[in-house]
# Entry
Amino acid sequence: MEIPYTVEAREDTGLYNGKVGMWLFLASEVMLFGALFSSYVLLRESHPNWLFGAAKDLSLFWGTVNTAVLIGSGITILLAWAGLKLRDFGRFKLWMGATLALGLLFLFIKGTEYAAKFHHGHYPNTHTFYAIYFVLTGLHALHVIGGVAVNAWLWGPGSKLWRTEPERFTNRVELAGLFWHFVDLVWMFLFPVLYLL
Amino acid sequence: MEPNDQSDLERQIRAHLSVVLLLAALVGLNVGVSFLPVAGGLRVGAHVGLAVLSGALVLTFFMHLWSEKRLTLAVLALTFLLLAAMMILTWVARHDQPEMTEYNSAAPPPAPHHVP
# Structure
């Protein structure tokens, strides 16, 4: 069965179906993270002994490095997509590989930070700050894992589609890029809220 | 983004690289603000404002919102409207606490009513 509008845009929306689906999904994700940010505000404002500054025992250095890593991965995935638009599959492989490496580096640094917290006896039930910290960063990390899994598929076995349907494959990479940029976007708010405020 | 030709695409890539540098500068500024002797609402406003600016750059350039179709813009406009409403309600209600006088009071809780 032929799936319609995987490449060409629909007349009524002006978009191919996958793109409409991805934007609707991202809209629901905005509300999911929005609800958690809302919880953060309420918990922070109502807690009599909220943790500020050094009391949080978070590494500003590694938080900043991770922010740089995600920003860097944002441009590499864009270059991967641009490689396909330029009909240069090698360029796609190179930059998507770089995106994967940066995604894994982010997770490694986050994992190291978690290990340090556990080593110092900071668990989600230790303090309300750590409860919301682990929920927010944990959910974000799950999104990074999901993004890495999809990117790895597109970089590896999924890239076979390029030989038969290059336009459709390019669109898939564009959608993966949209999701990856959203993950980047969420971190732009998580970083100051958790590490700087 | 629907680039017409190779030169168009390469020009856009160069623009995106400039955005990356701008994002890095904003992150640096945000970290720098945390070292300033500023407290309270001004500090929160500065951090959140810089984060909103960074997020807007990601949305506009990396996610190509500047060249998206009207449907996408409408979906996002509705989403951000709902998000703003939720955050405003949160901010307004941030000091509201459940009274829980029954549990906070030193007096023992009232005996339950017995229905014959």
